[in-house]
């Protein structure tokens, strides 16, 4: 099984498959300096586009590919769909559901990071990850930029860089947002519980949240929403 990873679900699925005696190779992009490694074999780095992945699939002939990459890893998801079609390899997409607003939430939807950058002012809490931070470089106010590793994109003039890896508790998020007098939170619609505490904290403090919409999943790809469903399907 080739498991395209970089998410908590991918690590959970790898652990369950390895425990079941399945040969699993997890693939990581290699973006983080110190990634959390899944159980089983691990390879790190890009395949070299659709052709590179197709060549890997022809050489290793896995029984299936599980694309458990992040909902915003659209390039890898598109490549997986095309390479699996080209090589006749079975493909399953594991993607957690997006978040849903509840009573008291003040959520505003953006189509892209650039769109989100045009919707915010005051002190901005940016939690969209290190990639694409450049879209916010022109913001004039204070911008609290939280990510695991330092971004390579240019940062806004008033940036405060916070290097931290979740999960975070609601109390952590409340304390942080109060300390920095945050006016608005920006996030991707990543879904899941690992990074949802900021949404609860924003609701409690009456702070608006700008959410970037997910990219679409390629047509014809079989999709499951949880590790349990993926295991049943596999
Ligand atoms: P992306 O834009 O969709 O992918 C760009 C290229 O990175 C791919 O074409 C591929 O290179 C390589 N790549 C991506 N994921 C890979 C994987 N699991 N194994 C091997 N190569 C991979 O991806 P991204 O948004 O940069 O995300 C990179 C990784 O970070 C993914 O594993 C994803 O699950 C994780 N992640 C992403 C986000 C996010 O917000 N985007 C958040 C949390 C975690 P080649 O074309 O050379 O094969």
Explain this structure to me?
- The chain is of the alpha/beta class and 234 residues long.
- Helices cover 29% and strands 21% of the residues.
- It contains seven helices and twelve strands.
- It has helices spanning 8-19, 49-60, 74-87, 113-117, 170-179, 197-205, 227-233; strands at residues 2-4, 25-28, 41-44, 65-67, 91-94, 107-110, 124-126, 142-147, 158-163, 184-188, 209-212, 222-224.
- The strands form two sheets. A six-stranded parallel sheet has the order 3-2-1-4-5-12, with helices on both faces. It has a six-stranded parallel sheet with strand order 6-11-10-7-8-9.
- α1 (8-19) links the parallel β1 (2-4) and β2.
- The chain is elongated.
- The mean pLDDT is 97.
- Bound molecules: NADP nicotinamide-adenine-dinucleotide phosphate (NAP).
- NADP nicotinamide-adenine-dinucleotide phosphate binds next to β2, α2 and α3.
Task: Chart the SSEs and their pairings.
Layout: E1 2-4, H1 8-19, E2 25-28, E3 41-44, H2 49-60, E4 65-67, H3 74-87, E5 91-94, E6 107-110, H4 113-117, E7 124-126, E8 142-147, E9 158-163, H5 170-179, E10 184-188, H6 197-205, E11 209-212, E12 222-224, H7 227-233
Parallel strand pairs: 1-2, 1-4, 2-3, 4-5, 5-12, 6-11, 7-8, 7-10, 8-9, 10-11
Bound molecules: NADP nicotinamide-adenine-dinucleotide phosphate.
NADP nicotinamide-adenine-dinucleotide phosphate (NAP) binds next to strand 2, helix 2 and helix 3.
